[in-house]
Amino acid sequence: MDVEQEQVRRAWWTTNQARDKSSAWEGALRSCYLDWELTKAVADEFQAKIRKRRLDEVSLVECYCDPCSGRRVRQQLDKEGQPFVGIQIVVSGHERFKIGDKTITVGSGDVVFWNSYEATEFEVVEPLHKITLLMPQALLESRLQLGMLIRGGIVDTRTATGALLYSHIRGLCIQFEEISSQEVYGVKWSSIELAAAAAVWLQQPMLTSAQTHTRQIQNYILKNLQDPSLSVKQIADNNGISIRYVHSLFSPLGETVSHWIMERRLERCKDALASRHQSRGVVKDVAFQWGFNDTAHFSRVFKRRFGRTPLEYWEYTHSS
Predict the structure, then answer these.
(1) What is the mean pLDDT of residues 183-191?
(2) Could you give the CA distance from residue 187 to residue 184 in angstroms, rounded to a whole number?
(3) Which of 103, 109, 219, 270 is the most buried (most CB within 10 A)?
(4) What local confidence, expressed as pLDDT, does residue 1 receive?
(5) What is the C-alpha separation between 320 and 228, in angstroms, rounded?
């Protein structure tokens, strides 16, 4: 088993810590979440336990802890690479957040989004049980159709998406140890879909006309990814706009239309390979399923993107 597979599951609890509890707890937070620091030492009688489960790029973290407080400051934010979004549900207890200049308090039954690009403070005010999905911002962008910042805040669980997201995260935690390797990719994308649907309420409210059109075009592309004849001309014709305008919509994103389509297809192929049980014909089947009509070309671009050929990646994900 390689290092990556060994890190799929991780657990920590205070009863196993002989050294300073504050340092140990801060280290556990950094290991399971992001680069947090405590703002004051925890009490001698402080108790906590935490466990983490990797779901490909997404992490599922369950935490029980006594009152404590911490923060992520600008220096810490700058040290991290790609931005992350945390989606937290509270099973019991209360926690207070200060996200930017906004203070919010969450309790049992709430869903809160926080992110790695806004300075954030937290204070656990009573024994807390919470569950968090931690995912790269880029994964949510692939479903929001535009790379908008998702601001931290509470999602109303009286809405359909809020209620579904809470139940989904709670259910994943109940199945923490039972999620099989074949289910990981379906779980990952269903989590992203629900998170993106709920995150709509936390996006910056105003979109320009061009941004609205970009959303529409990207949504059209996602619905037609499996069509091998998908082209810029088809996109333009079926949406009543010019080819030149389609290209202009993607220019602010720093990539071409073709590259955006290729990236989305390769992501789907990567997950499809990992979820297939049999190797026979898997490369051809997955390539054709997601719009590639040349397996040699598919193998080349897949290896360039992920460092392994499709068959090598299938063997890697099924090696255990």
Answers:
(1) 90
(2) 5
(3) 270
(4) 35
(5) 33
